[in-house]
UniProtKB/TrEMBL annotation:
Protein location: Cell membrane
CDD domains the UniProt entry points to: MFS_MefA_like
Alphabetical list of InterPro entries matching this protein: MFS, MFS_dom, MFS_trans_sf
PROSITE patterns in alphabetical order: MFS
UniProt key word Membrane: yes
Organism: Brevibacterium aurantiacum
Identification of the protein by name: Predicted arabinose efflux permease, MFS family
Amino acid sequence: MRFLRTHPGFSMLWAINFTSSMVGWSMGIALSVHIYQLTGSALWTAILAATPTVSAIVFGHLAGTVADRWNPLRVVQLTLLARVVVLLGLFVVAESPVWLAILVFVQAAVQQIYRPAEQVLIADFVSAEDLPEANGLNSFASNATRLVAPALGGFVIAVVGFGWTALGMTAFMACSAILSLTLGRWFQQSPPSEDAEMPDGSKSVGTYLKLLRRSPRARGLVLLQVLDAVKEGPLSALFPVLMLGVVGATSTEMGLANSAFAVSAVVAGPLIGVVIKRLGYQLTVVGGAAVAYSLIVVLVIWPSFPMAVIAFFLSGLPFTVSWVGSQTWLLLTAPRSMRGRVVGTNGAVYSCFTLITMLGSGVLADMIGVRWVIGVAAGVALIGLVPVHLLLRSVPKPTDASAESEGQK
């Protein structure tokens, strides 16, 4: 809490993110329940679930460009207002599955535009040294709402119905939009974080691909995200099959195992800044991912409900520390002029690989078995950490100067 008190601009943005994340998780559950009750169709339910992934692929790079070329504060304020309008629209078209799907797609597109601008804004509110702690607290807010909000959404829709749930969540989102109007005072007073320089001394590398070509560290961090998508796609798609079909768990036990991840992930949030300062970025990022991926392999070898709970609980903390650390390090590696594009394009790349591996895992599972698909995918991700480690330990170029001092601590 001391960090929030000493960074008033970030603390206000954190409160906004906490509220909007609560709305997002609650409405996600309420929408999935409502669309299934309305249509009785698994296809419609799946379409709504896949919409955010498709939106990330389509709008990821564009969202990053918007964050770089426009004032990120204005982008955050406008997207929050747009989410209020979309939520109000869900109340209006509550009985039309087609319009619900359209508005969910619009909402996902708005959220894609919001995220890079929000990440750029956080980096402007705090120094490069404080950025890991800021992103860790942001992760804490997301995981804390993940624990509470789905149950809240399910409870509220059962009591008052979908329409009134959407109307109530609209009011909460309106509070976030109003709070965002106060951010200007701190945004104007806070100097931007130091910009990373390229080998030729310039402050811009032009394009995302040029950054990857000229920075081994950027290549290593992007490769890490691709490897995680290779692991996460099959795990997300086939986890119900693994638990219900292989382990023989009940749906309640499956939910408990899944929630165990968020329990330790919440604990990780406030610790991220300290861990990175003590261990450095490289050990935090690669080591955390190695532990998390290894636990998935162990679960596949010895599948059971107790092992699932243990594996997900133990992987929540190292994975979250690794993921947030890699996102922060990549943000510091990129020049200030293209941080939005880095965040947005990486989101699109991650979503694309996740979608491909999700679809592919469904086909392969019928051929070679669920355990083999999940296990091989996690094993590939684990082995892939070797080239990631080699890229991250490469002699840093000037583009990495803003993060190097932290990485060696």
